[in-house]
Predict the structure of UDP-N-acetylmuramate--L-alanine ligase.
Amino acid sequence: MAPAVPTAMARPHFIGIGGAGMSGIAKILATRGARVAGSDAKDSETAAALRALGATVHIGHAAAHLAEDATCVVVSSAIRDDNPELAAARERGVPVVHRSDALAGLMTDSRAIAVAGTHGKTTTTSMLAVSLTTLGLDPSYAIGGDLDVPGSNARHGGGEIFVAEADESDRSFHKYAPEVAIVLNVELDHHANYASMGEIYESFETFADRIVPGGTLVIAADHAGARELTARLRGRDGLRIVTYGEAADADVRIVGIAPHGLTSEVTVLLDNEELTFTVSVPGRHYAHNAVAALTAGTALGVPAAELAAALGSYTGVKRRLQLKGSAAGVQVIDSYAHHPTEIAADLEAIRGSAGDGRVLVVFQPHLFSRTQQLATEMGVALALADASVVLDIYPAREDPIPGVTSALIIEAAAAKGADTDAEHDKEAVPDRIAGMAKPGDLVLTMGAGDVTELGPKILARLATVES
């Protein structure tokens, strides 16, 4: 039976309801009986999935979309102050609730696992959601991406476990009080909100301090930033720290990762016993994510051998090295990678699966602030591809920064000897890739913006070459 919906959330209105984080919360509330409404800039499959649950979804933003009986308005940090629905809520005295507060409310009275880190959150949260469901534990979950179909980013389950992706970008992960927290890595990102690594560490310390007394922090042993955070947290009262990774001092030690095409066989040493299991996605970083999930689940008492076997049922999440299809002997894969570490990790993973084929990338930088700070590192990472086409920066919520363009990335890649070029017209990409790709090649559309829309168009254009 679904928990009662608090009166304040009985008639919520979501601004940007189609977003990955917002739509998940809306879905769970709708399943629990709330009368959900909201708006988004454009229609989508996610909006259709919400309507199927009884939600009212308006396209476009207007004050008139806010119902007279709305009990609250839910926003994310991406919503600007001049949004007409937000302005109407404030004028009428309707409470404004941040997305993180709404999610924290959903996790109340659950055994919560919160997954944090600069990269890998969506994958690790998804691995836990899928494997715990496979074991019949019926978890609730909220993920920053769809598992298989639109709307599968969240679920209300009847079990006691709630798995949630915990976003550090705006410090909203400080709102959660998990029984188990995972920290996958700690790096400087989200430059509009963090000025230094010192601020990043302080933010992650605050997150760790929110773990309930007697709870567990699962944290990477191989990542320099995570090791520094571990050193800062050692000795905190009521906090159990379990490290994982390939480092010799890891509590849960990875002793082997054997790639097999688009899968990997992983062996870990846990409680002095070796355990081998299959990860059904390629790449060392995904193997590490799976071990983080395994360690967190066992911290909640899930038998390790059962959870390890169930992790093999995870076959990926949308936009995380998602195969979009093949045409003319060319595979097209979609990647959400937008930070240099993610770009390099996905390219290394794909390189191991490419055989004699080339790896071609269509990269769309995400955010002016991120590009300003990390353009050189992005260019170096792109040099791992055989050739790449770089689109203009996807602004998302940001205004342009003078002098910050994709040219900064291209110059850095060229300095590493990379075959990298600009493309200012996104619609010209399918023709361009069709002229570059040969049978056996792998094409990655890469970035956190709307570059994902190009995969089907590239496949359609390649199909004309094939015919």
Q: What stands out?
A: The chain has a mean pLDDT of 91. The longest strand covers residues 252-260. The chain has 14 helices and 21 strands. The radius of gyration is 22 Å.
